[in-house]
Amino acid sequence: MSNTEKFWQMTADKFTNEEMWFTIGEGLLKIIAILIISGLVIRLGKSAIRKFFNLKTKTPLGLVSERRDATLIKLLENILTYVVFFISIMTILSVLTINVQAMLAGAGIVGLAVGFGAQSLVKDVITGFFIIFEDQFSVGDFVRIGQFEGTVDEIGLRTTKIKSFTGEVHILPNGSITEVTNFSLHNSVAILDIGIAYESDIDRTERVLQDLLAGLPEKYEELVKEPELLGVQQFGASELVLRIVAETQPMKHWYIGRLLRKEIKLALDENGIEIPYPRLVMYSRQEEEAMRKQPGS
Q1: What DSSP line would sit under 234-250, residue for residue?
Q2: Could you tell me if 7 and 110 lie in one domain?
């Protein structure tokens, strides 16, 4: 029998070997079962995580504030997915008769070598954990980090994404975050300086403003309480400045400030109280000299 005939005979024997096909079928069934079980574990795990946070919000024993629930839910779901996928891949490799222990040992040595050169990555991850569990800021908060200011779009273990007012998204490594100003933790304050003419009756103006401010909380739900008229703030060049402060819900002070300025302007106009505007006085030296030269001047 020639070599070619021997080769084809061996190939035919392999394809007609029932034990080989049984082993392949058994392996495929195991892999399919592993994938199905992995998908069910991820789905059930995510459902359990969300139910836990929904239940926590209904009890007074919750350890995590509602502000960061969305951040923690997303983070825990990602961790669950990564862990299940890793275990599934290792199990599938074992089914394929690949030495997983040797791979893990080699990966450990490589990881140790890479770890010495990836200290910044480790720092980013550790800082990300502290940011989330210390509740420094959460998704949706308006923050200032260094020179960047905007709404937190996403918090990861390695990076944080901030969306500015004009739409740009800034991606910052967590390890670089050393100082954070969070504008969303407490109520905001709108400060308004209102100028009136020196000729105006101050007492009457204050009465008009106080009557207006008393009814604003019922009109605007963003106001935490009735705005307060502090009184005369300063003497301007051509105006008397009154200051009003209004406590609002977090990050609503710009919106309320614009509305209050409109309300105040309408109220002052309705009561005939003048808001000063720039005036220009023309001085002519020639006319003054001509008047001096007139008889009897």
Answers
A1: EE-SS-EEEEEEEEEST
A2: yes
Judging by beta carbons within 10 Å of its beta carbon (0-12, 13-18, 19+), is residue 14 exposed, middle or buried?
Answer: exposed
Q: Could you tell me if 131 and 145 are in contact, meaning their C-beta atoms sit under 8 angstroms apart?
A: no
Long-range contacts of residues 169-173, Cβ cutoff 8 Å, at least 24 apart: 172/145, 172/146, 172/148, 173/120, 173/124
Identify whether residues 167 and 65 lie together within a single domain.
no
Residue 160 φ/ψ, nearest 5 degrees: -125, 135
Query: What is the C-alpha separation between 244 and 229, in angstroms, rounded?
Result: 5
> Which stretches of the chain drop beneath a pLDDT of 70?
1-22, 56-68, 70-71, 100-118, 279-297
> 34 near 92, Cβ under 8 Å?
yes
Give pTM, 2 decimals: 0.56
Strand-pair category, 142-145 with 188-196: unpaired
* CATH number of the structural domain spanning residue 152: 2.30.30.60
Residues 214 and 244 in one domain: yes
Q: Shortest CA distance to 74 belongs to which of 28, 118, 139?
A: 139
Claim to verify: residue 220 and residue 239 sit in the same structural domain: yes
Q: What are phi and psi of 233, to 5 degrees?
A: -90, -40
Task: Compute the distance between CA of residue 89 and CA of residue 93 in angstroms, rounded to an integer.
Answer: 6
Q: What is the pLDDT of residues 27-64, one digit of tens each?
A: 788 888 888 888 898 888 888 888 887 775 554 444 44
Structural domain span for residue 219: 188-270
The conformation of residue 64, written as its DSSP 8-state character, comes to S
